[in-house]
Amino acid sequence: MKRPTSIALLTALVVCSLYAAEPLSRRDAARLQAKIDRITKGPGLRGKAGVSTPVTETEVNSYLRYELADRIPAGVTDPWVSILENGRLSGRATVDLARVGQSRKSSGMLDPFNFLTGSLPLLVNGVLRTKNGVGTFAVESASVSSVPVPVWMLQEIVSYYSKSESAPQGVAIDKPFVLPNGIREIHTARGQATVVQ
C-alpha cells in the first residue's frame, strides 16, 4: 500500500471513530430517566441562577429505544434524534404512510398520499428556539425516502400520529408551545442539549 493511501485510510478511520454514534444502552436510558425525574420536580427553591441539566444524544436515543418503545404509536419504528448546534435538530423514523392516507379525505387522484403507501423513511430537519419558557420549532426540510415533501404533508403525518384525548387534532408543528416544569430554555451543541430551569 502506498504511503499516501495508508495515511488517507488512517485519517478516514480516525474521523469515523470520532463521529460514530455511541451504542445505545439501558444504562443511558436509565440515566436520562433520572434526569427527567429531576427536571419534572421543577426548579423549586434552587435559586434564581437556574439549574442546568445536560442531556446527550445517546441518552435520548437509548430512552426512545428502551423506555418509550411501547408508547411510540403503531406505525412508527426506529426513531432517531440527532442534536446539532444552535438549536438545530434532525429526526428520522420509518413511518407507515398508508395509515395516514386512509385516515384522511382524499383530494382526488393527484393527492400525494395516494402514491405514498407502506412504511417509508421520514427525515425532518429544523430549528428549536426557546426563550422565557416558550418554544417553537421551525421546519427547515422534510423528506420521505429522500424525496422532499412540503410542510403541509409533514403536518398531516405529525397530526395523525400525535392525536390523543387531550389533543384530538394532534400536534401543530408551527405553533409555539409552553415548556413544562419551569424549563426556561434549551440550548444545543453537537450531540448534547442543556435544559435550563
For the structure shown, list the relevant keywords.
alpha+beta
- Gross morphology is globular
Uncertain regions: pLDDT < 50 for 5+ in a row? Answer: 1-20
How are helices and strands ordered from N to C? Answer: HHEHEEHEEEHEEE
**pLDDT average, as an integer?**
86
Class by alpha and beta content = alpha+beta
How many DSSP helices? 5
Please give the number of β-strands.
9
Biggest sheet features: 6 strands, antiparallel
* Backbone CA Rg: 20 Å
Strand content: 25-35%
Q: Alpha-carbon distance between the termini?
A: 55 Å
Helix fraction by DSSP (H/I, runs of at least 4): 25-40%
Written account of the structure:
With 197 residues, the chain is α+β, with helices and mostly antiparallel strands. Helix content is 31%, strand content 30%. It has five helices and nine strands, in the order ααβαββαβββαβββ. The protein has helices at residues 3-19, 26-40, 57-66, 97-103, 151-162; strands at residues 52-56, 76-83, 88-96, 119-131, 134-144, 147-148, 177-178, 185-189, 192-196. Strands 2, 3, 4, 5, 6 and 7 form a six-stranded antiparallel sheet that branches. α2 crosses α3 (57-66) and α4 (97-103) packs across α5 (151-162). The protein is globular, with a radius of gyration of 20 Å. Mean pLDDT is 86; it is low at 1-20.
Can you lay out the helices and strands and say which pair or pack?
Elements: H1 3-19, H2 26-40, E1 52-56, H3 57-66, E2 76-83, E3 88-96, H4 97-103, E4 119-131, E5 134-144, E6 147-148, H5 151-162, E7 177-178, E8 185-189, E9 192-196
Antiparallel strand pairs: 1-9, 2-3, 3-4, 4-5, 5-6, 5-7, 8-9
Helix pairs in contact: 2-3, 4-5
